[in-house]
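Give me structure tokens for this 556-residue protein.
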Amino acid sequence: MSLSNPQLPKSILVLRSYNFSAFIHDLLAGVTVGMVALPLAMAFGIASGVTPQAGLYTAIVAGFLISALGGSRTQIGGPTGAFVVIVAGILGKFGLPGLAMVTFMAGILLVGMGLTGLGAAVRFIPRMVIIGFTNGIAILIASTQIKDFFGLRIGATPSEFLPRMRMIAAHFGSFNPAAVALGAVTIAVLVLMPRLWRRVPASIVAVAVCTLAAWLLRLPVETIGSRFGGIPRGLPAIALPDFHAEHVLPLLAPAFTVAMLAALESMLSAVVADEMTGDRHNSNVELVAQGVANIVSPLFGGIPATGAIARTATNIRAGARSPVAGIVHALTLLGILLVAAPLAGYIPLATLAGVLFVVAYNMGHWNEIGAILRLDFAAISVWMATFALTVFADLTVAVGVGLTLAALLYIYRVAETTTVGPVTEDYIRDGLPHSLQGRILPSYISLLRIHGPFLFGTTEKLVDATANLEALAPIVVLRLRNMTAIDASGIHAIESFAQRLRRSGRTLLLCGAMEQPSRLLAQSRFLDLIGRENVLPNIQAALDRARELHDSTVAA
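Here you go.
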């Protein structure tokens, strides 16, 4: 098979132009992101209800396979915060054998999605649903860490949110000042250090400082060693999941949830990587890699894995050029596990809780809530229902209800914007400023159009049509005359396009929006982003504005 076949993993495709300089960049990036992943992997393992080493095994095994087999050049895989709540729920109902089977089954589903070309189906999950359940998961992750952050003297906390919070409130008087101090120092280092010095991973500094302080001062705080007995060296022996045919049906629903969550998180992470690097991932190859990783992970005592957005961004900022960086990241973690595993026993749990508090905050997409609340009541309801059900029910119910409401909203949007009426002289006259007939486009303008509803499930078409920004002129006019409806996903897609154009030195103008899109765009933060002066009523006004921008640039 040719090395140019796009269905091959990116690790093979990069061999055509790979060199020693790229390897040095990948080596440094891989070691950096490996150090970042070390405390996160252990923290995700503990928060999920398993051991810290289970998180490490997942980061090593799944991280290696996702980079080696995946369709993204810089994706980093491993355990993530998105799985914490659902893994804890599966453990509570089915135990470790059930979790291993769910992960294994989810891997098979992911491979099936990739081989059948269903990788594109992930984009049919609306933006409001994504934001709703990431908000909810962030709240739940933070709530699971209150006990360790404050060093509360209580046993296992309930898996449900409200009973957990009631138990924490009832025992809050038992908080440990030393644990609170370590947790607070951890958060301070994680928040302040990236602003002052980016070259060293803040999470490693926070864990090292707090662990050393706890050991030297002999602080009375719980550690990995005191709760879990430390971390054994090396990977465990391969063990097949305890398979029973009668367990397949009860485990199918959680396996489907894990598979969809892994697919969604990995695609979001790959898109972020594409935006940062200008590369294009192959979603179906990526899903196959995610599937293989989740099939193999439980064989080594691991938990579900997916693409990790924060670690992927760290990998890119550290200079990664290819999937080799992700492979080095996994080997770095393996080296630490083989050499320095006993030292992990001294890490205070309050420090790992502080790390997860910051993770929960960063994953929450809190800045998008304001934009959603500016939309109409129907869109807000989809977000609110998904968020509330994620926190107070469970993720499976939340996503199911969120998708159902979003589908109904989709039908409503299409019905709302469908009109039937006579063609009158006024209609013809009003349409003349929008007509392209007889108009000559200057060379400094590229004209794009959106035709039909621009709702969730269709937004990727804008990304595909504008993949090569260098082919576009300095001023891009997006004509919305025939765009009949838009939702939060569509607004987010146009915002992302505007930001890509701005980074490339280009300007975006919008023109001719109909009533429903115009109303929703005005309610969002979009006009502030693009500039109200760059949203025009028709194509003639857009051409005039483009000429004004061009003349000012030439004069400068």
